[in-house]
Specification:
single chain, 151 residues, alpha+beta, 5 helices, globular
């Protein structure tokens, strides 16, 4: 809980400095993933409801191919980024798994209500910074998940 509040505070501080308010992208793969999970804390209401599905958030966090899928109406049974319809996240550990050509694979591991979750973020560095190209769980990917439950 303290780490979630810290991450939410860090995101607010970064936003105040203009780091996280760019049109798209982040300065490093790790900061991108940390900022995703800052939206799942127990802090302010702005940073506790999960990653928003608006156009500005999609531009900031996702590559062009995933932006429309993120903002499209859908009937998903759970939030893919926490693998559950509800959350109470433990500490989030982030590690660079590998760098391969233009992609970097970042592993995020955390506890959500007693269940260990591991997701692999595939991120790319574009002209505006680091953005998410896809996220893989052991059984699915974010792109396929969003396509499956699109209205």
């Amino acid at each position: 809980m303290r780490q979630a509040k810290f991450l939410a505070g860090l995101s607010l501080a970064a936003a105040a400095l203009g780091v996280a308010t760019a049109d798209a992208g982040f300065r490093s793969p790790g900061s991108l993933v940390r900022n995703v999970y800052a939206h799942y804390g127990n802090g302010s209401s702005e940073f506790s409801n999960g990653l928003p599905r608006d156009d500005a958030t999609a531009r900031q966090f996702f590559d062009p191919g995933l932006r429309n899928a993120w903002t499209a109406p859908h009937d998903a049974p759970y939030d893919f980024l926490v693998q559950s319809p509800t959350w109470r996240l433990g500490a989030v550990s982030i590690a660079i798994l590998r760098r391969q050509f233009d992609k970097t694979y970042v592993t995020a591991r955390f506890d959500n209500q007693g269940r260990t979750i591991t997701l692999n973020f595939i991120v790319v560095n574009g002209p505006e910074g680091w953005v998410i190209s896809d996220v893989e769980s052991p059984h699915d990917s974010l792109r396929l998940f969003l396509a499956q439950f699109r209205r």
